[in-house]
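Bumping with the actual sequence this time:
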Amino acid sequence: DILGIRAPCCGRHLHRDCVQRFAMTSGTKHFKCPNCNNKDKIAKDFKKHGIYIPHKDAAWELPEASSFYNFQDMHLRERRCSISSCLCEEEEGRRFSEVEGEYEIVLCGLCGTNGAHIKCGNISQDSLEYVCEDCGKS
């Protein structure tokens, strides 16, 4: 079939144009079968059938796309006190964090998302172990 192509790994019939567009955006490193995620067998066979897979990084990982996916912000964590009755009276309030003091923000040891000031969460300064309300319920 000139419009379709059969995946050698799982036997799935795919549109040739869709496979070619996916190959152009994914490049060699990320090209895989959309049905079973096979990488080796499908790339080798599809090249024999005229599918061009460029040797490049995936389009979604190029610098031009980084602002769309916010890759530069993925390593940043917002540290704030999530205790409902935060006791901090500093100007920054819930976002205020001092190093090694009663208003140091300690993140939840289970989810790493929610945090609490040592004073607000009644956290022991010896262990600095904190489990947020969300994780404590489960």
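The tokens above came from a reply further down the thread. The mean pLDDT is 87.
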